[in-house]
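Why do we bother with holo predictions? Because pocket geometry can differ from the apo form. Keep that in mind while you read this record for flavin-adenine dinucleotide.
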Amino acid sequence: MTVCVVGGGPAGMMAAIEAAGYNDKVMLFEQNEKLGKKLFLTGKGRCNLTNACSVEELFANIATNRKFLFSAFYGFDNSETIRFFNDRGLETKVERGLRVFPVSDHSSDVIKILRRELERKNVEVYLNTKVTKLLTDEISGSISGVIIKHDNKTKQITADKVIMATGGMSYPLTGSDGSGFGLVEALGIEVKTCEPSLVPFTCNDKDITCMQGLTLKNVGLCVSKDDKMLYSGFGELLFTHFGISGPLVLTASTCIRQSDYRKGLKAFIDLKSALSFEELDRRILRDFEESRNKNFSNSLNKLLPAKMITAVIKKTGIPADKKVNSITKEERNILCRILKSFEIKIDGNRGFDEAIITRGGVGVSDIVPSTMESRKIKGLFFAGEMIDTDALTGGFNLQIAWSTGHLAGRSR
Ligand SMILES: Cc1cc2nc3c(=O)[nH]c(=O)nc-3n(C[C@H](O)[C@H](O)[C@H](O)COP(=O)(O)OP(=O)(O)OC[C@H]3O[C@@H](n4cnc5c(N)ncnc54)[C@H](O)[C@@H]3O)c2cc1C
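The structure, written out:
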């Protein structure tokens, strides 16, 4: 059997390695000059290759189309991923949140293992080679090959099986430019609208953007649209020159559709999540006691990071130079409310250029979950981010790539 794998990212490499285990002739086509360009960037260059959680937790961290991944995960789960790399000489370590990294802290070592395995399994790797068309047999309708473009020359390759692993649309400079979606759409396969996800929020408010560089740990975050709660969580948030980012914001973005980024989308930060409203009020009273004769603006430095004080004061409407001893109970209430629910108007996100993943892709109803084969075109398989399934941060998106790649590779 001749197998063509389209895309040399984690899903494509895993699929090719697995397919080659069945004595098939396997060809892997990658349009970049090297394999795993995005994989190299993962985990800030350290590659959070999976998560050492239980299988239940693995499923719980899938944001879209969890059930679709049952066969893929049960066939090759996170412990299999760790074993796969350990057995081939990559030592791994487990960090905060059970995130798994190579001991070396180098994503390049993960890529090295995969490249070596491709070589050992005699996979033919074609770099700088873009697949420009998928071919089907006129009579049976099943897949019959691909057309590739290399050095401005096109060539037809005959194949019995084609695995599409061309990724999503985020970080397009890494090669994930969405071109694979066009190839499958041309065969009548449905592609669900692609949207950036795990993506920072933008906010066109100087009072917010001037806090750039400030990190808030252990804060609560709610995101709502027209008073409907879309997300509520707890963690770390970062102010940037364009708005807000950090793990909490990226997670929140998985609950927001592109159409929500219009008027009325708001984030509320609970700056004092460990304290109830009443406890916070008592705490402020104590602070105010100590600063009775100071200006309001000079009384908040124990309560807030310096970069936030001006923005909070502005929101309270209390004059910055008002003496603390003349602040009324009502004014203190307003301050408490703002600290428990600091409002930020969100006007958009940073788009595919800065999104960690793409939501959307080949519809799961068009794919057989136990094989990853297309229901419409026999011999056509899918793996990785190009499928309409995605997960939270923590190594789960790469686990989707390994698991679906492994299943697509071994399915006949
Ligand atoms: C900055 C960043 C950090 C991340 N960190 C993590 C992390 O630490 N842990 C985690 O789990 N996930 C992480 N992710 C997500 C993870 O990288 C992706 O989910 C994963 O790379 C998807 O793998 P894939 O093989 O499906 O697609 P990709 O990695 O996108 O690979 C697809 C490949 O297909 C090639 N291709 C596309 N079209 C064609 C064509 N027509 N012909 C030939 N080749 C083609 C592309 O050039 C590309 O190399 C991160 C993502 C980003 C952007």
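The first strand starts at residue 2 and ends at 6.
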